[in-house]
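Today's session is about reading a structure prediction critically. Students often jump straight to the picture, but the first step is always the sequence itself: look for stretches that repeat, for charged clusters, for runs of hydrophobic residues. Only then move on to the predicted structure, which in these notes is written as discrete structure tokens rather than atom positions. Here is the chain we will use throughout the hour.
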Amino acid sequence: AHEGRIHLVGGLLGEGGRVVGVPDRHIAYDPSTGESATLASLPTRRHHPHAVDHKGKLYLVGGFGSDPDRVTWIMRTDTLVYDDATNAWSMLVAASEPHAEVVATSLGDRIHVVGGRRPKAAANAAYGDHEDVDRHLVFDPAGNAWSRAAPALSARNSAAGAVIGGLWHVAGGRSVAGGPTDAHEVYDPKEDRWRSAAPMPKGSGAGGNAAAAVNGKLYVFGGEYFDNGGRVHPEVWIYDPKADAWTGTVPMPTPRHGLGA
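Below is the predicted structure for this chain, in token form.
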């Protein structure tokens, strides 16, 4: 969500149930009118990028680039910012290392990026070239600089999170080695410290889930897992920080993963 519209940037193109390409497309949807607009394209094709609204500007960090003739997983270090007035993307300083399938958020005067994956060695073109990490990167837009903060308590990718009362909640996700996780970790930027909170209900952890904070509570939507044939979740869970407890609510009409909230 940015300046009253929902921005969709990059991703994977599907056709006939198959992934057929990677776009450089940038679309903004206005909920008040129901209308969509095609905006300035990204400088390069990108899937799994992370868009963050921070102090009135739209930033895009990391993700995977792709060859034009096939879908590849070339993890990137790019940091981009979108100018609403000129309808153009600009390149900022790159991150210290490639990152993708992270959780990213605006927290105070910086953008925080935690977890996800990075290349295991020199290879950086296939999904199997990457490993899960607990790494925590921080971007300072005012200084156009990246730094590091306290690593997460666990290594995982494709989790989801939101900020409540100045604390950053990160829930769910998965690891390649361990599969889906119910882990729920909370970051305090004043102490630069992570703590464990009540885990998601057993079996509800999944990769590619989505989260949002409303009225002081964390809502987590959907996700997928691959074990035992795999499943995409329709469930919606609500976390109350005051009670340190999760409850279920009405599920989504259709199971979904790789969604936004």
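Discussion point for the tutorial: The radius of gyration is 18 Å.
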